[in-house]
Amino acid sequence: MILNIVEYPNKKLKEKSKPVDKFDQQLHKLLDAMYHVMIESRGIGLAAIQVAHAKQILIINLPTEEDEQPIDNLIEIINPVITHKSGETTYQEGCLSVPSFYEDINRFEYITVNYQDRHGNTKSLEADGLLSIAIQHEYDHLNGVLFIDKLSYSRRKKFEKEYKRVQKEKNNS
Asked: What are the alphabetically sorted keywords of the record (predicted)?
């Protein structure tokens, strides 16, 4: 299965993802392909909508201290529900769907998420730090929200201007 990253301003990124109800070989192929795309793109998280599949699926693989992302550390989160949120933190986020742009985004510091794994088993995960931030970032994608949607009006205008400039440069090269 060959997947490509959907990039802003593609309207597909605004689509709300649907729950997964079949935990079959097709789902496993999608999850495996998502992992390879995320790693090749040097990302730490990916939502299925970012590869044009409007399904409630996200994957996270935080780098180790050696800056490696072994598949053993991969977290596959299907049909997530965030059941607890507390604290506040700010982190400079980027996104594979909005390449080359980074902005400080406010998030909850601690979350608890209930979800299913690739076999449909119910799981619960308490997260803080970068894991919490990454889950919230990808979870937003499932609802059609990009990190740039969380910017203030003035920061969003600045982003739009910069984005158009970069696109123009890309097209002229």
From this structure: Hydrolase, Iron, Metal-binding, Protein biosynthesis
Q: What does each C-alpha distance from 27 to 79, 90, 118, 162 come to in angstroms?
A: 13, 33, 7, 37
- Contact call for residues 73 and 62 (beta carbons, < 8 A): yes
Q: Is 138 a catalytic site residue? A: yes
Cβ contact 46:96 at 8 Å:
yes
The CATH number linked to 133 is: 3.90.45.10
Is 141 annotated in some ligand binding site?
A: yes
Find the catalytic residue in 15, 138, 160, 162.
138
Per-residue pLDDT reduced to its tens digit, 72-111 = 999 999 999 999 999 999 999 999 999 989 999 999 999 9
